[in-house]
Design a protein that fits this description.
The chain has about 260 residues and is α+β, with helices and mostly antiparallel strands. Helices cover about 20% and strands about 35% of the residues. The protein folds into two domains: about 1-80 and about 235-245, Immunoglobulin-like (Sandwich); about 90-225, C8orf32 fold (Roll), CATH 3.10.620. The chain is built from five helices and 15 strands. The strands form four sheets. The chain has a five-stranded antiparallel sheet with strand order 4-3-7-1-15, with no helix packed on it. It has a four-stranded antiparallel sheet with strand order 5-6-2-14, with no helix packed on it. A four-stranded antiparallel sheet has the order 12-11-10-13, covered by helices on one side. The longest helix has 15 residues, at about 120-135. It is globular, with a radius of gyration of 18 Å. The mean pLDDT is about 95.
């Protein structure tokens, strides 16, 4: 499987700031010499520093001045990445309630709907339930909305679907986390968000939107919820996003089945 991904961001800095970018594919993907990340301002390249966060996400830090800033990223991903390691701390970190996945508040719903289900039956049940209960409506949710508000509103976008899936699974003592991805086949094309659940010591992908096949997703950022996976964070000054273009293509687009256990590789 060969995938090609890119992201183009056009920003306007109102005041000097530090931008934290999460647009590069996660470590473990074979990108060879194809990967390029450039940040320019007034035609000049800006220095970029790469860091890894506690979830293993590659973050790129860049200081910008006032004015237009252009971010360009491209990579060709060959084959599949290595299987994600499972650490003891993961079983604690990804079971706790978090800002956008309030598993403690949604516990009665989770037990009432899915009590007794395990493994593939649980993942398929949660995915189908969320997909049927919610309506995908672009622009319908606020950046501060969590799983509880989503289940009450009955609508949202991919991150809202993923937050609800994560909250339901955690409420049933299944470690779960959110992953931002490049998603070949997604229409309209954008960054995408899915959930991962720890089943039989393997992280399995759950995407209740069923908008793109899980087998060809490319991992960007991993975390407790969207607070850990934003593609752009601004520290200090103010930066506006004026335009963004995301692409993701695969040589052969696979078929998906909600009952199939899939790893994000």
């Amino acid at each position: 499987m060969n995938r090609t991904v890119s992201a183009s961001l056009h920003l306007e800095a109102i005041a000097p700031a530090q931008c934290v970018l999460s647009v590069a594919v996660a470590e473990g993907n074979d990108v060879g010499s194809s990967e390029r990340l450039t940040v320019t301002q007034a035609g000049r390249p800006l220095p970029v520093t790469e860091l890894r966060d506690q979830h293993g996400t590659r973050l790129h830090l860049v200081d910008v001045g006032i004015g237009r800033v252009d971010v360009e990223y491209h990579a060709s991903v060959a084959g599949q990445s290595a299987r994600s390691d499972v650490r003891d701390i993961d079983r604690i970190r990804y079971l706790r309630p978090s800002r956008y996945s309030e598993s403690d508040a949604i516990l009665p719903t989770a037990r009432g709907e899915f009590f007794g289900l395990e493994g593939v039956d649980l993942l398929a049940g949660v995915s189908s339930w969320v997909g049927q209960k919610l309506q995908y409506v672009p622009g319908s949710s606020l950046p501060t909305d969590g799983a509880l508000r989503t289940v009450l509103a009955r609508q949202g976008v991919c991150r809202d679907y993923a937050h609800l899936v994560v909250a339901l699974l955690r409420a049933l003592d299944v470690p779960a986390r959110l992953v931002s991805v490049y998603a070949p086949g997604l229409d309209p094309m954008d960054f995408h968000a899915v959930a991962e659940a720890l089943i039989d010591n393997v992280w399995r992908v759950v995407d209740a939107t069923i908008l793109a096949p899980r087998q060809s997703l490319v991992r960007l950022a991993t975390g407790r919820d969207a607070a850990d996976t934003a593609f752009l964070t601004t520290i200090g000054g103010m930066v506006h996003l004026h335009e963004m273009t995301v692409t993701a293509a695969v040589d052969v687009l696979p078929r998906d089945n909600v009952r199939e256990l899939v790893e994000l590789r």
